[in-house]
Amino acid sequence: MDEQMKVDNLIIGGGPAGLTAAYLLLKEKSLGGVEIIESNEEYLGGISRTEKKNEFRFDIGGHRFFSKSSKINDLWDEILPNGFIERKRKSRILFKQKFFNYPISASEALIKLGFIESVLCGLSFIKAKIFPVKKPKSFHDWVANNFGERLYLNFFKTYTEKVWGMSCDEISADWAAQRIKGLDLLKLVLDSFNFKKMNKTEIKTLIKTFKYPKFGPGMMWESAGEKIKSMNGKISMGINATSFYYNSEKKTWEVNCLNKKNNHQLKYTAKRIICSAAMRDVVENIYPPLKTKNEAKKLSYRDFITVAVMMKKEPDFDDNWIYIHDKKINAGRMQNYTSWSNYMAPEKCGCIGLEYFCNKNDQFWRHSNEELKKIAFEDIKKLGIFDNDDILDAFVIRQEKAYPVYDKDYKDVISKLSNEIEESYKNLFLVGRNGMHKYNNQDHAMMSSILTVENIKYNTKKNNIWNINVDAEYLEGETSDKNKAMGSVRDTPNQL
């Protein structure tokens, strides 16, 4: 027999969006009780969790804590008081066996690319400004318009296609506009020669410092979980929501779930649902079915594997990330955990993460953990950063649906689905990265829940969370603090 529970607010997903929603709902005692169900059996935080083996800790993609919104910063400090350290940002690109700082200076490009290639890049940039692609639709179009075809081929094409597993001509221009907007190549070139200083406005992807929890981002979300429990909220781990039935008479939801630990079936009856689970899965399992149900099948995701390699010594470089443009190396990016925090590894030890972008149904994902470790060790050998004798151990972490894919159809699909959900149901709220199928940062996921809870509290739709953007400004024209520009840099696989 199914185990049956009743709850006022059922939160699906224990990542930044779900935990923020639960925490804020519980602060508003009039909104009722809260229960979070999280599919992971051990860790809170979703893709922002920190996993651990022995005394080594690993992020899933890396998460810088940086926001221009005081509302978000205040909430971080409220949840994790005195828990942050400040770190310097450093990332480089490995291209043709040479390291390039980002942003690339004209002088560095001249030396490392060579005089002829640098001139060709400059001419290509000038051509793009004189003869741009009108109404750019693809990532290729957008980047070539802003940087020139030559720089696109050198520094964007190979890496981006490694990340997404598809042609840059199939990726929406929205992706580039979101992750690269605000970067002016001409200003960077002039600044590199000290001819002209860049505008004081910080480009979100080029922040110089950021906050970081001492023991990784999971520290933040484990703390949020403890606070939620202390406020009589409930958190149930290892629970998968499998189907959603709407009772139109009672205006309540019945949610069927599976307890992964014991294979028992669970059923929740909820007054309202706040959901950060993948939009595609939710829409395909709502009953009665949405008219736009078949549209959800068009949504796709990119999966992610990290091989965390534990070392006897610290790395001799201080990059947070190194972006790997070499086709001969399987890894797309290498993360240096101790550059984020010295507390991520035991004293005098190092820990790096080789990051692989793939799809769950492809051959790479189907490799055994031991095969993946061998691939990572071979990549390390090719990179020449450590001797194999320096390796203590390795640990494989798989993350499904790490990145919602921005193909050419995604925007139209999201519009149709979100419109029908909002028109049909007043008590189902989609939030967060996968809930909204928006490649957003940690603070934007939190803001989607902050605004949703405000809507619930005041019984209004004043806050349109679908207007939350992931570039420097969202809800343009608003002046209140919650609508100020935000610029956290989450685990973006872009090279910026």
Characterization of the model:
This protein is an alpha/beta fold and 496 residues long. The chain folds into three domains: 3-48 and 217-299 and 407-483, FAD/NAD(P)-binding domain (3-Layer(bba) Sandwich), CATH 3.50.50; 101-196, no CATH class; 301-404, Protoporphyrinogen oxidase, mitochondrial, domain 2 (Polyamine Oxidase, Chain A, domain 2). The protein has 17 helices and 19 strands. The chain has helices spanning 16-27, 70-79, 106-113, 115-130, 139-147, 149-155, 157-164, 173-180, 185-192, 218-230, 279-284, 337-340, 363-366, 369-383, 410-424, 432-436, 442-458, and strands spanning 3-12, 34-38, 50-53, 56-59, 84-88, 91-95, 98-101, 209-213, 234-237, 239-247, 252-259, 264-275, 286-287, 301-311, 321-324, 333-336, 350-358, 391-404, 428-430. Strands 1, 2, 9, 10, 11, 12, 13 and 19 form an eight-stranded mixed beta sheet that branches. It has a seven-stranded mixed beta sheet with strand order 7-6-15-16-17-14-18. It is globular. Residues 192-202 and 470-492 have low confidence and may be disordered.
